[in-house]
Amino acid sequence: MTRPIGKTIRVVIVDDHPMLREGTRVCLERAPGIAVVGVTGIGREAIHLVAEHRPDVLLLDLRLPDISGVEVARQVRAAYADTAIVVLTGYGDAGYLRALRPLGIRGYLAKTATDAEIVDAVRRAAAGCTMVTSQSEGEILTEPLTPREREILRRLVAGQRNAEIAAALLISAKTVEYHVSNIFTKLGARSRAEAIRIAHEQGILLLEDAGRNQE
Amino acid sequence: MTRPIGKTIRVVIVDDHPMLREGTRVCLERAPGIAVVGVTGIGREAIHLVAEHRPDVLLLDLRLPDISGVEVARQVRAAYADTAIVVLTGYGDAGYLRALRPLGIRGYLAKTATDAEIVDAVRRAAAGCTMVTSQSEGEILTEPLTPREREILRRLVAGQRNAEIAAALLISAKTVEYHVSNIFTKLGARSRAEAIRIAHEQGILLLEDAGRNQE
DNA sequence: CCGTGACCCAGGGTTTTCCCCAGGACCCTA
DNA sequence: TAGGGTCCTGGGGAAAACCCTGGGTCACGG
């Protein structure tokens, strides 16, 4: 898993901001022993680039125009385990991290990172080091939500009432109350507003449900 | 107000992402007739840079570590009206635009913009053109919230109950109900959950209150 | 076969929110 | 001095949310 010293670290950069891509590219290419072999802002193209170049490190933004960076990480992790993944996190992405932990990400990097920090993170990732903050950003959700609960939580966050949710799902309002109550228990919330806040903080709604947002 | 043709366009770049700053800088310096005279990621330093260099164009990010980009824009607009301001907007910044319109911003630019778009935007801004999308990003909030209402909305979004808000602000619960009701009317919401959603969408809570987040 | 978990429904209770109504104090500007 | 805006306070009532209890079906695996 660890790379021999002296070999050039090959990096693929994935971010949907051209300017940030460019800045990161010149920054990394100025560093000795690091070469940027691919750059893109599109998720599917990122997977192709990894398949083609088999880079040592994948610098990956989570917000991409086509598919989620989480999805890219999952596929790369499954098919090309030799590539170390370093996630570039923006402002509101703290919730994503929870979902990424089981995927074996090699490091997290804030987008506000400086030249030195990025070069350092890339070098460490290539060397096999795992930089996980893990203990930060609050506690982990003990009990996971069921699909039905996520469905209802999503509508709750959207501002729907119990009665509206019941009508949309063709179930009774009492059943909605039941699920909402369970959601509160699992999230540790005491009101809808609190549940909404926690859902945002933990990023519960941002995950794998991207494919069925069609109403 | 318009600049004579042939003169070099002098630009100051303000963004808290070093990589994006660097990318934008090299991009602009590659373009003929454009020179970057200052670069920073800090709001107060941005104002100093403008005062010192009197640039033709200020490329301004809205999220800065110290003071809001909105505040920077306001001060620059007031003291150095010759400097055209082009705002760099990220993902969730749609709400900011509402607050910026009365300030006479010369242009809005998505952070996902390409080299050509940025160079073009800078040239147009320096030439006196105003590029306002204005009609996009949904409806504009007709009535702005009062400071008291924003304060209460912030707590509402944080998940506090009316009684808790009342206790925190040392006012009666009935008064909180009154403000909450007014907030609903102004936002077009029918419940707290809806108000929270709208507040997030419009970015109402992200504005100038950065300086008093201390509880 | 029986336990477990997810899902569904219901009654009955308290609490909170929501939506009208009303009035008074303060500051700023015209 | 008179208005207008903001902030504060209050009552009463309907609606929604919240919290507990109790049922039931279905699919899964020991």
From TrEMBL, chains A, B:
<dbReference type="InterPro" id="IPR039420">
    <property type="entry name" value="WalR-like"/>
</dbReference>
<keyword id="KW-0238">DNA-binding</keyword>
<dbReference type="Pfam" id="PF00196">
    <property type="entry name" value="GerE"/>
</dbReference>
<dbReference type="InterPro" id="IPR000792">
    <property type="entry name" value="Tscrpt_reg_LuxR_C"/>
</dbReference>
<feature type="domain" description="Response regulatory">
    <location>
        <begin position="10"/>
        <end position="126"/>
    </location>
</feature>
<dbReference type="GO" id="GO:0006355">
    <property type="term" value="P:regulation of DNA-templated transcription"/>
</dbReference>
<dbReference type="InterPro" id="IPR001789">
    <property type="entry name" value="Sig_transdc_resp-reg_receiver"/>
</dbReference>
<feature type="domain" description="HTH luxR-type">
    <location>
        <begin position="138"/>
        <end position="203"/>
    </location>
</feature>
<feature type="modified residue" description="4-aspartylphosphate">
    <location>
        <position position="61"/>
    </location>
</feature>
<dbReference type="Pfam" id="PF00072">
    <property type="entry name" value="Response_reg"/>
</dbReference>
<keyword id="KW-0597">Phosphoprotein</keyword>
<dbReference type="InterPro" id="IPR011006">
    <property type="entry name" value="CheY-like_superfamily"/>
</dbReference>
<protein>
    <submittedName>
        <fullName>Response regulator transcription factor</fullName>
    </submittedName>
</protein>
<dbReference type="GO" id="GO:0003677">
    <property type="term" value="F:DNA binding"/>
</dbReference>
<dbReference type="InterPro" id="IPR058245">
    <property type="entry name" value="NreC/VraR/RcsB-like_REC"/>
</dbReference>
<dbReference type="InterPro" id="IPR016032">
    <property type="entry name" value="Sig_transdc_resp-reg_C-effctor"/>
</dbReference>
<dbReference type="GO" id="GO:0000160">
    <property type="term" value="P:phosphorelay signal transduction system"/>
</dbReference>
